[in-house]
Specification:
With about 300 residues, the protein is mainly alpha-helical. Helix content is about 70%, strand content about 0%. It folds into 2 domains: about 170 residues, no CATH class; about 120 residues, no CATH class.
């Protein structure tokens, strides 16, 4: 077996003190972490730039799922696995590794600071190594994910202003079409016979995020308030995040009880989550007196 697929060296590296560390890193690559991170970036730090991050992240995640289902590359043997959340998904390229580069790399670009670049490097390396340590990806998967994420990040940094200008020039109806039509096509042309499955929810989240930004554009982060009020806005963000996760646990069952199928309910649920984040951010920004006219 080649080094790219050989996992026999991994168990020897495991230690009771290291396992919780790498489990923590790997949790930072799962959806619940992103559902907490993205609202906080939008509400408390860089609301306008967060739109680009969310779109970049979701497009990257969709690409990763498409490549996984195209290559059909199996994961390492379950005998090596310490992470039981991967299900029956394929291995190449590693989504954790790819999205770590995309997310933390772009956050470092947004921050434009040495500490942010160092923090991004730690997170990217930790998340990538965690997938090897936990035995759910081989070296080929991880290197492929890092490479794809790196190329994506370089292209995004190079072309983001051009893409943003073209996006704004489309107008709302064409913007909606650009987001929804690829998802419709994917439903019928996905390489796996059972279709894209939960991947469509990513598009629904992006659409809801976009719709909320159109309805209530946020131009000023909550922490731009007077210093004496910043603590209140941070507390409000924590409460709002709690509300988001509470709704995540309740709305799915409610929508099903109203007669929607499980798939349709899940799509609507994720769309409402995106709408919640940006509409709430815009509403608070207006109350803070800092919103400027704009398209979001």
């Amino acid at each position: 077996m080649s080094l790219w697929h050989d996992m026999s060296w991994v168990p020897a590296l495991r230690h009771p003190a290291l396992t919780p560390l790498f489990e923590g890193f790997t949790l930072a690559g799962y959806p619940l972490f992103y559902l907490a991170l993205l609202p906080l970036v939008h509400w408390l730090w860089k609301p306008r730039e967060s739109h680009r991050l969310v779109a970049f992240l979701i497009v990257s995640a969709l690409l990763n799922s498409l490549l996984k289902d195209t290559f059909d590359d199996p994961r390492p043997s379950a005998a090596f696995a310490l992470d039981g959340r991967v299900g029956d998904s394929y291995g190449f390229p590693s989504g954790h590794a790819q999205l770590a580069v995309v997310t933390w790399g772009y956050l470092a670009v947004m921050a434009q600071a040495a500490w942010a670049r160092l923090g991004a490097a730690v997170m990217i390396l930790g998340i990538a190594l965690s997938r090897l340590y936990l035995g759910v990806h081989d070296l080929e998967d991880v290197v492929g994910g890092l490479g794809l994420g790196g190329v994506s990040l370089a292209l995004m940094v190079r072309w983001q202003d051009v893409l943003a200008a073209r996006w704004q020039a489309l107008g709302p109806l064409r913007q909606a079409a650009v987001m929804l039509l690829p998802l419709i096509v994917a439903s019928f042309a996905w390489p796996e016979p059972d279709g894209p499955g939960g991947v469509l929810a990513l598009g629904a989240y992006l659409f809801g995020w976009w719709l909320g930004a159109r309805l209530l554009p946020q131009q000023t982060p909550w922490d731009s308030a007077a210093p004496r009020r910043r603590g209140a806005f941070v507390a409000l963000a924590v409460l709002a995040l709690g509300g988001l996760f509470y709704g995540l646990g309740k709305t799915g069952g409610l929508l099903v009880s109203l007669g929607l199928g499980e798939s349709a309910a899940f799509l609507l649920q994720t769309g409402l989550m995106g709408l919640y984040v940006t509409a709430l951010g815009g509403g608070i920004s207006r109350l803070n007196g800092g919103a400027e006219p704009g398209k979001g």
